[in-house]
Write a structure and sequence with these properties.
Number of strands: 16
Distance between the termini: 31 Å
Radius of gyration: 26 Å
Helix content: 25-40%
Strand order of the largest sheet: 14-5-9-8-15
Strand content: 5-15%
Low-confidence stretches: 1-7, 86-91, 532-540
Number of helices: 13
Structural class: alpha+beta
Shape: globular
Length: 540
């Protein structure tokens, strides 16, 4: 059903098409802004800031341009970046908060084990890592005190040894001087994949019945943790605080893989050794028996938690299950994962064609969801049978992901007779709402773009602010005092809210007028920060 504009005479589809063509947000957020000094108020439209094209293509393109600028700025730095310090610290989600504490505990254990073994230099290296990590925790507002669960720090016997070098307090790679006096500062671009789960052809299993969908699901769910371990090992082997800009993308077989730009270089043999030696162990209750499914599910009792409907037995809490695991000397991790044998490693020199192509490759799918990216990289179906096989492949993986626990708070633990952490009444196995279980996420619930803290010295928000500041300066405007105004989001039924087609056409008119003033001002010959080289036309 089309929504008509009161004054524009345009339907919604036409208005959105014009807005998208002009680079205007097609889903603007409306606010009533009141000036505390004068009491005057007006309705202001704010871009939605969507990062995926299906949400808002113009906003997604701007986000992609900012990411491209961020990647380019940090890849071949000659000096240490000055880190951006956001007011009030960085806002992080619960999963990252839990990981920061888990990583802190692991590094502590490694430091203590090195001290006990008399490895003084190694203990000092881990102490330096710990100090830096705890400082970041403090800046992010994450408390340093939490219960420690000590695991053995002994490496798995089948894992290759890790190379290591004494740590240097730098994030900038080495520079090399050529015979003709040129100074080159090379960096690296690597692609890492997960192992095989069965033979595939054209992204489809040759034999779906023997394809390891459970292994594929678990690897996808914990892929982010494996990346963290790789970065940790990489820094230890390199001997400096390696910085990176990485993107997680899907392969045609639906498994995630990693593209990573690394500032600086280290020997390829060492890098391959780090890849081979990196693994991640998931120390969760290794339950194999399904106790509850279908209509036979535990029930919730206030003040108690989940109990067995027939016996009244209280299900063990998450902490109790971990206590049992911790005291079992024969316990094995629930899942162990590592990278596959395929790894692509390239050296890249600043300003080269390879550098530009690599940046474009990193940003290729940034405006698409994992599901949309899969559809684009998948082979075109030659016939109905092939298309049907692909649908079956997706369905089998999604079904495996449906029942796998994705975190300590996943409702799927009830299936195995364990209460999830912070259990709630409405939990039910197979219905976990977390992103990793959504079909379009394919098991990977983490961030698509991974940028180290000292990559370019700016966050994505910093690039967006710089872009806005450039436009404000170019137009000769003045930044308003934020404390002077009160912002109130308008509801869809607010009397002051004009029909969306009308609002979009006003924004288009404002954008065109702003571009004309910007072009006439001739303030700068290049586009604003984070514009990805689009010039003045893309500034607003």
């Amino acid at each position: 059903m089309r929504q008509a504009g009161a004054t524009t005479g345009l339907d919604l589809e036409t208005a959105q098409a014009l807005a998208e063509q002009t680079g205007v947000c097609i889903r603007p957020l409306s606010f009533r802004v009141t000036d505390r000094a004068t009491g005057a108020s007006q309705v202001v439209e704010v871009a939605c800031g969507a990062r995926l094209a299906r949400g808002c293509p113009p906003c997604a393109r701007k986000t992609r341009a900012a990411r491209i600028a961020q990647c380019r700025d940090g890849w071949h730095l000659e000096d240490e970046p000055e880190r951006e310090r956001p007011v009030g610290g960085r806002v992080i989600d619960g999963d990252e908060r839990a990981w920061m504490r888990e990583f802190r505990d692991e590094v502590r254990s490694k430091r203590d084990a090195a001290l006990a073994a008399g490895e003084t230099r190694e203990a000092e290296d881990w102490a330096a890592v710990l100090a830096g990590h705890e400082a970041e925790m403090g800046q992010a507002g994450v408390g340093l005190e939490a219960r420690r669960r000590v695991r053995s720090t002994r490496r798995r016997q089948e894992a290759p040894a890790l190379p290591k070098r004494a740590m240097r307090p730098t994030t900038v790679g080495r520079a090399f001087t050529t015979p003709d006096g040129r100074i080159l500062r090379p960096s690296m671009f690597i692609t890492l994949t997960l192992p095989s789960y069965g033979r595939v052809h054209g992204g489809l299993p040759v034999n779906p019945e023997t394809y390891d969908y459970v292994g594929a699901a678990r690897d996808s769910l914990h892929f982010g943790k494996l990346i963290d371990r790789f970065v940790q090992n990489l820094r230890r082997a390199a001997g400096w605080n390696v910085q990176y800009f990485a993107v997680v993308e899907p392969q045609r077989r639906l498994a995630p893989h990693l593209h990573m730009a690394i500032r600086g270089t280290l020997p390829r043999a060492d890098l391959r050794q780090v890849i081979a030696a990196t693994y991640h162990q998931v120390w969760w209750p290794a339950v194999n028996e399904v106790r509850y499914e279908g209509d036979h599910l535990p029930k919730w009792e206030d003040g108690v938690g989940y109990v067995d409907r027939e016996t009244g037995e209280i299900l063990p809490t998450w902490e109790e299950a971990l206590d049992t695991l911790e005291t079992d000397r024969n316990a094995e991790p629930r899942h162990v994962m590592a990278f596959g044998a395929q790894a692509d490693i390239r050296g890249v020199v600043a300003g080269s064609r390879d550098a530009d192509l690599s940046i474009k490759y990193l940003a290729k799918y940034l405006t698409k969801s994992l599901g949309e990216a899969v559809a684009e990289v998948a082979e075109a179906a030659d016939d109905g049978a092939r298309d049907s096989a692909r649908r079956v492949h997706v369905r089998r993986l999604v079904e495996a992901l449906r029942w796998e626990p994705c975190s300590a708070r996943c409702s799927n633990w009830l299936r195995f007779g364990i209460q999830p952490e912070n259990a709630k009444r409405e939990m039910e196995p197979g219905r976990c709402p977390k992103a990793a279980h959504r079909a379009e996420r394919l098991g990977y619930g983490g961030r698509r773009v991974l940028v180290s803290r000292q990559w370019s010295g700016k966050t994505l928000g910093g690039y967006q602010q710089a872009r806005r500041a450039w436009v404000v300066e170019a137009l000769g405007l003045e930044e308003a005092d934020a404390d002077r105004f009160v912002w109130q989001k308008l509801s869809a039924t607010d009397a002051q809210l004009a029909p969306l087609p009308e609002r979009l056409m006003r924004l288009v008119a404002d954008r065109m007028a702003g571009r004309a003033r910007l072009a006439a001002s001739m303030v700068a010959e290049q586009g604003p920060p984070g514009d990805g080289g689009s010039g003045v036309g893309g500034a607003l």
